[in-house]
Design a protein that fits this description.
Layout (H helix, E strand, L loop, with lengths): L2 E5 L4 H12 L3 E6 L8 H9 L4 E4 L5 H10 L3 E6 L6 H6 L1 H21 L3 E8 L23 H19 L3 E8 L1 E3 L18 H9 L6 E4 L11 E2 L1 E3 H16 L7 E6 L5 E2 H12 L5 E4 L14 H7 L7 H17 L3
Parallel strand pairs: 1-2, 1-4, 2-3, 4-5, 5-6, 6-11, 7-10, 8-13
Antiparallel strand pairs: 9-12
The site of nicotinamide-adenine-dinucleotide has 29 residues, from helix 1, strand 2, helix 5, strand 5 and strand 7.
Length: 342
């Protein structure tokens, strides 16, 4: 069995990816420091796959700890690196926390991968690198714009660090996956998103409002130049996103990559407005959502959705699940989390 390290594997996207990796027969070892997740996620992964992944509780900022991990697991063939801090607002207030957590951890892992005879590396990047793109849909060739936040900057710098390293380490092959907006939960409702505190993202805010944890959803601006005036994003079901990681990893392990460093957009190719997401939620849940239109929020991008041709053609990957599927699973997950004291 091919052993894969998944950092941040107990988090939202990481846990769904561990499920898909195990379903495809990979042996998974997770590193997570539980700073934004719970060890209970292991039970959910086990319930779905019938297999408990190896788990090492480790803060990847601990350089000696990372070295010791790779000394113990020298048979790791690939790494999917999810572990990072991801709250944009917090990153503005605490930039050094973000640069330390998102950059030093990446460097420590790459230093270890450099020592291996060969290694495949998948990096969690983001469409935030494009900022407000000049052309829609956004292709991988769209220019990387000045980052709007320290968080966004860590993704840009992270990509540059990997690219520079791949240039001089021929045994290292890497893919940066630029996610659009991951939402939803596994259909089994065994794993999902577990935001700590007030959710930063639209969908958990919607489900928490519907369940009574938040009073109402604020829709920031309805006077944007879009069909209904609200901002547009490309919402991708987390299970579709997870499957793309397994395909990207296989591409590297089987040597199908065209260069040692590649980037792919992961989105559906379809933009949905905030009000369309609210309507989808109301349709699948049968509930009416309490929301109000408020002023625009500073720094919001008007519209962003992916050109998926490269991922479709090169990776042979396409999203299968719809916005309604994602909203339905997110709502089932919210009810489970609230009523079963997850
Ligand atoms: N969710 C999104 O909307 C989105 C969009 C684009 C990119 N991304 C990126 O995808 C990745 C995963 O995102 P997510 O939504 O699953 O986040 P998440 O917070 O649910 O998962 C990240 C996991 O990493 C762990 N972690 C953080 N710092 C660590 C450290 N120093 N050592 C060990 N473990 C650590 C956390 O405990 C958590 O379990 C992140 O890199 C994020 O920036 C997320």
């Amino acid at each position: 069995m091919v052993k894969i390290l998944v950092t941040g594997g107990l988090g939202f996207i990481g846990s769904h990816t561990v499920v898909e990796l195990q379903n495809e027969g990979y042996e998974v070892v997770i590193i997570d420091d539980l700073s934004n997740s719970s060890e209970k996620v292991l039970d959910g992964i086990t319930a779905i796959t019938g297999k408990t992944p190896l788990f090492e509780k480790l803060d990847l900022k601990d350089k000696a700890g990372v070295e010791a991990f790779f000394a113990k697991h020298s048979d790791v063939k690939g790494v999917i690196h999810f572990a990072a801090s991801k709250a944009v607002g917090e990153s503005v207030k605490e930039p050094l926390l973000y640069y330390e957590n998102n950059i030093s951890t990446l460097v420590y892992i790459l230093k270890e991968l450099k020592k291996l005879p060969s290694a495949a590396f998948i990096f969690s990047s983001s469409c935030t690198v494009y900022g407000q793109a000049d052309e829609l849909p956004i292709t991988e060739n769209a220019p990387v714009k000045q980052a709007e936040s320290p968080y966004g900057n860590t993704k840009q710098i992270g990509e540059e660090i990997i690219q520079d390293t791949c240039k001089v380490v021929p045994t290292l092959k890497a893919i940066a996956l630029r996610y659009f907006n991951p939402i939803g939960a596994h259909e089994s409702v065994e794993i999902g998103e577990l935001p700590i505190g007030v959710p930063q993202n639209l969908v958990p805010f919607i489900t928490q409002t519907a369940i009574g944890l938040r009073q109402e959803l604020s829709v920031f601006g309805d006077d944007y130049p879009t069909p209904d005036g609200t901002c547009i994003r490309d919402y991708i079901h987390v299970v579709d996103l997870a499957k793309a990681h397994v395909i990207a990893l296989g591409r590297l392990l089987q040597g199908k990559n065209k260069s040692n460093y590649e980037t792919f957009n992961l989105g559906t190719g379809k933009g949905s407005s905030v009000l369309e997401v609210v309507k989808s939620f109301e349709k699948v849940s049968g509930k009416s959502l309490n929301y109000k239109i408020v002023d625009r929020r500073e720094g919001d991008i008007i519209s962003a959705y992916a050109d998926t041709n490269k991922a479709n053609d090169e990776l042979g990957w396409k999203t299968k699940l719809s916005l309604d599927d994602a909203m339905s699973s997110a709502w089932k997950w919210e009810q489970k989390v609230r009523f079963n004291e997850y």
